[in-house]
Amino acid sequence: MADPADKPPRGGDNRPALALHVPEPKSRPGDPVDFSDLDIGEAGSQPRPDEGAHPSEMTGLAYDLIRVLGDDDRAHGPWDPKLDPETLRTMLRHMAMTRAFDERMFRGQRQGKTSFYMKCTGEEATSIATSMALASDDMVFPSYRQQGILIARGYPLIEMINQIYSNKGDKLKGRQLPIMYSSREHSFFSISGNLATQTPQAVGWAMASAIKGDSRIAATWVGEGSTAEGDFHSACTFATVYNAPVILNVINNQWAISSFSGFAGAERTTFAARALGYGLAGLRVDGNDPLACYASQLWAANRARANKGPTLIEYFTYRAEGHSTSDDPSGYRSAQEREDWPLGDPVKRLRDHLIAIGEWDEDRQAAMDKECAEQVKEVTKEAEKNGILGHGLHQPFRTMFEDVFEELPWHLKEQAEQATRERIKKFGEKGPNR
Ligand SMILES: Cc1ncc(C[n+]2csc(CCOP(=O)(O)OP(=O)(O)O)c2C)c(N)n1
Ligand SMILES: [Mg+2]
User: Fold this and answer.
1) Do the strands 255-256 and 281-286 form a parallel or antiparallel pair, or are they unpaired?
2) Which atom of ligand 1 is nearest to the CA of 223?
3) Among candidates 403, 406, 422, 424, which has minimal Cα distance to 414?
4) Which reaction is recorded as catalysed by this protein (predicted)?
């Protein structure tokens, strides 16, 4: 038996006091910003392993930053996806359209046409370039900031706006928060407000695809803050155990509403390095470099399709705007951050690349931006005919009781009747929303 005298002394004796570490962002409103500690390697200098490589052979890429577009606006190195100019222009157009759409919807919220909207400014490449590297029937499980996927997949803008306005054209019948789209036809899984739930769902879908001997893979997008949820870690475990054909995209925009990424573990390691402990392939990518976004997603898609295993990819980017229309970032972070952010703007970087290779010019860009803004404006007007917030032109009130049970149980029937009676009393026989 151990001698009790060997035990460390009890508290209050001469043991050192413990100290809890509470992460604190490096700058707050009004402070100068310093991004100099970021290790941003030269574009083209990161190795591109074989798509079937064992995760242990590529640990360096979980800490590095895969980049293709250099300061000279040209593509460099082994990750250059060598896309033709037409594809690059399509990518640029999707990105410009997403930005125009965001601007219009944000304004619509300020005008009281919807209750809520979320922009993806500065993060367009992480949804558009990545989804362009997937097949159109690969199943995507996005978060709320990947509207670019729907735009890239050709989902009609009017359907998006109907959903945002929760009007009578809304296919989801006003049952989802604005921007929480869903489209089976576009292999776009319903967005959930419960963060990170999409990650195990994507892995489960990918496992089912493998069980059935299908050829489609799954991809999910999750914010860096949301990786602190248990769901994300279960997803990683299932993905590695069953070698699921799935891509786990972590969008590290450095903020989770007002919490900086340190609260999700960013002070200690990279999000891509999470992959290592699970035995997943891990890549860390410049999320503002559309070519690097495309190339890394294609690498992971080819790997998954060849049954070589899942990949976790961290896209390092910056949330240029507020979290949502309900947020004001000037209360918790320095405005200088956006100015000084060293990886630039993804739309501008792709535009400058196309100009540098002689496939684009400022005039064409201006014309395209104008066209996108006008198209969004027109479609918005069209959608407004179906109603906006508060105009009563939403789905009939009673539909909230439908589509859950094949046959409405008696107690819900009673509730529906009572609700209708009360609304008639309030609004009259010809009143709205019955
Ligand atoms: C399970 C859960 N916890 C908390 C929230 C509230 N919430 C909504 S968005 C958000 C921030 C998420 O940040 P991040 O994952 O980094 O994504 P980003 O908004 O930056 O794209 C939080 C905490 C939620 N919706 N669900
Ligand atoms: Mg975030």
Assistant:
1) unpaired
2) 15
3) 422
4) N(6)-[(R)-lipoyl]-L-lysyl-[protein] + 3-methyl-2-oxobutanoate + H(+) = N(6)-[(R)-S(8)-2-methylpropanoyldihydrolipoyl]-L-lysyl-[protein] + CO2
Distances (CA, A) of 404 to 190, 354, 407: 16, 50, 9
Give the phi and the psi of residue 222 in degrees, each rounded to 5: -145, 140
d(CA 200, CA 395): 32
The structure tokens 């990750």 sit at 79
Type of residue at 364: R
CA distance 123 to 311: 20
pTM above 0.90, yes or no: yes
To test ligand 1's pocket by mutation, which of 120, 176, 180, 195 has the most ligand atoms within 8 angstroms of CB?
Answer: 195
Q: Cβ–Cβ contacts within 10 Å for residue 311, how many?
A: 27
Using CB distances shorter than 6 Å, the residues near ligand 1 are: 145, 193-195, 223-226, 229, 251, 253, 255-257, 319, 323
Per-residue pLDDT of 260-313, as tens digits, reads 999 999 999 999 999 999 999 999 999 999 999 999 999 999 999 999 999 999
Phi, psi torsion values for 4, nearest 5 degrees:
-55, -20
Q: Answer whether 264's CB lies under 8 Å from 195's CB.
A: no
Give the distance (Å) from ligand 2 centre to CA of residue 254. 5
